[in-house]
Design brief:
The protein is mainly α. The two termini are 19 Å apart. α7 packs antiparallel against α8 (219-240). The longest helix is centred in the middle third of the chain and has 28 residues, at 120-147. It folds into 2 domains: 27-93; 95-240, Ferritin (Up-down Bundle), CATH 1.20.1260. The chain contains 8 helices and no strands.
Length: 244
């Protein structure tokens, strides 16, 4: 690789602080935004959320005050970056529309990782999850047909095929069956980065559904979010178990 971010030191923290005006960004126009711009905002929000929560979990597993202070300084930057990414999503985009964006991320990101993945076993893990993501997008698109004047195809701009995948009723597995063979420290850096990226994206999808899934009044919508949120827990387990 000509560029390996795992070996980069990055920009000093004191040069990364943002002003209030830099944090309070102008959101995109939901009617004209490119579908992949929405996807990028969602993916980067997930990456920053993962960095924040990793820092918090790290801090809760050490008693060294110097380490805690350094982690707090890093998290301050991570939380600013997370706000910039997540605040790109406008309030005029309702939860179901954002959900379609999350599932477009799940389908297209997973498919891209599978195509680029050098490790055959890891590639099979992405192919496995992709079949389920297709069905999630399909089911939320059907819900949108029932509840929203916009169509899911308009949101994904025909860049992602909306089609049935592995039926959700067939996705519920014993927790032990979601554990995969981990990569190692000697694995190709691309494989490690792929696993870290998809884990962060799936974790944020799980967080999102856990928080907004009880907001619909329609019992059909609530039941759908409930079921798919359960599968997202399985997906996080599936992908995080690949981490070295």
């Amino acid at each position: 690789m000509s560029f390996n971010p795992l070996t980069e030191k990055g920009i000093p923290l004191d040069r990364q602080l943002r002003t209030w005006s830099e944090l309070n960004v102008e959101p995109y126009d939901t009617r004209s935004v490119d579908a992949y711009t929405r996807c990028r905002a969602i993916v980067m929000n997930g990456a920053e959320m993962e960095a924040m929560w990793f820092g918090h979990q790290f801090a809760r597993h050490t008693t060294d005050p110097d380490v805690k202070r350094q982690l707090a300084a890093v998290r301050r930057i991570e939380t600013q970056q997370q706000k910039v990414c997540n605040w790109l999503i406008p309030g005029s985009e309702d939860n179901l529309e954002v959900t379609i964006g999350y599932e477009q991320v799940a389908v297209d990101l997973t498919a891209w990782l599978a195509r680029q993945e050098p490790d055959p076993y890891a590639r099979s893990c992405y192919d496995f999850g992709l079949l389920e993501d297709f069905d999630h997008l399909f089911r939320y698109a059907n819900l949108m047909d029932m509840k929203n004047p916009r169509k899911a195809a308009e949101l994904v701009q025909d860049l992602t095929e909306i089609m049935p995948g592995r039926p959700t009723w067939a996705e519920h597995r014993h927790p032990f069956d979601d554990i995969r063979k981990p990569l190692t420290r000697k694995s190709d850096p691309r494989s490690i980065l792929h696993a870290m990226t998809i884990t962060a994206a799936e974790q944020q999808t799980l967080n999102f559904y856990c928080n907004v899934g009880n907001r619909p009044e329609d019992p059909v919508a609530r039941a759908l979010y409930l079921e798919i949120a359960q599968i997202e827990e399985q997906h996080v387990t599936h992908y995080e178990s690949m981490l070295p």
